[in-house]
Amino acid sequence: MSDDPLLFEVKDRVAVITLNRPTQRNAINQEMGGQLMERLQQVRSDPDIRAAILTGAGGTFSAGADLKERASGGGQRNLDNAPAAVIEADPDARWSTMKFEKPLIAAIDGYCLAGGMELALTADIRICSTEAQFGLPEITHGFFPGGGGPQRLARSIPQSAAMELILTGDRIDAETALRVGIVSRMVAVDDLMATALKIATRIAGHAPLAVKAAKEVTQTALDETFEQAMRIGGALRWVVGQTEDAKEGPRAFVEKRAPKYKGR
Fold it and tell me: Higher pLDDT residue, 82 or 26?
């Protein structure tokens, strides 16, 4: 396998981003983090890519930030010394705050810890293998998760389960993650990528503007009142209804053929 800390490939309009430092349990160092940002931005801007999968090489998703690299620099994150630590001037400059408009799936095997779990929580859909382990152990190292882990986890699962993970720093297994709702599916290790690709390819086959709008409406529902979310949904539903793809779908249904969506 390549020595590149991040692998990237596109097939059938689905991008696969693979964290590739398996001997370091895919710990995220500055080089990997920089390449991850470049590839996420590429996925956002490329109209031929309609969905993306995040995964890790070597039977591990990611054990989090590279603490050895951090310790060699004095123990602090570089971000903790920057103005962005207090005021986020450019949300798109970090994966933890980037607005990612396209569907993102995390395919999780082995360790999914600390920053690795926070990265997985940015995904819209998370599936895991039976060998996956999840946790936010930062509290045991003297600090707390800074990549949106507490915020996203509290919006994803029941409050008590979220607080137990955040405050104890303990790990949970795949079955527990499925039960509390961190992941939507648990599959055998050998089926993990095939399942992720099947889901991503299914989504990539839909009208991309409708998918984008559906994701935006769903995210809006988390932040706004129901009434406001319905208003925004109504506006986006009208906009999408004017597209060529919205006309192609019914035509294909009547003509009993697969629709050919072009993203316009």
Answer: 26
> Structural domain boundaries of the chain?
6-204, 208-255
Give this prediction's pTM.
0.89
6-204 maps to CATH 3.90.226.10: yes
**Residues carrying an active site annotation:** 118, 138
- List the beta strands (DSSP E) in 69-219: 104-108, 111-113, 125-129, 133-135, 171-173, 185-187
Backbone angles phi, psi at 49, to 5 degrees: -100, 125
- Of all helices (H) and strands (E), which one includes residue 33? helix 30-45
Asked: is 208-255 a CATH 1.20.120 domain? The reply is: no
Q: For the chain, give the longest Cα–Cα distance.
A: 65
Instruction: State pLDDT tens for residues 89-116.
Output: 666 777 777 888 999 999 999 999 999 9
DSSP label of 107? E
Distance set, CA 219 to CA 24, 79, 100, 146, 261 (Å): 34, 26, 11, 21, 24
Q: CATH topology of 6-204 equal to that of 208-255?
A: no
Tell me how far apart the alpha carbons of residues 106 and 20 are, in angstroms, rounded to a whole number: 15
Give ∠ CA 51-52-57 in degrees, rounded to 5: 160
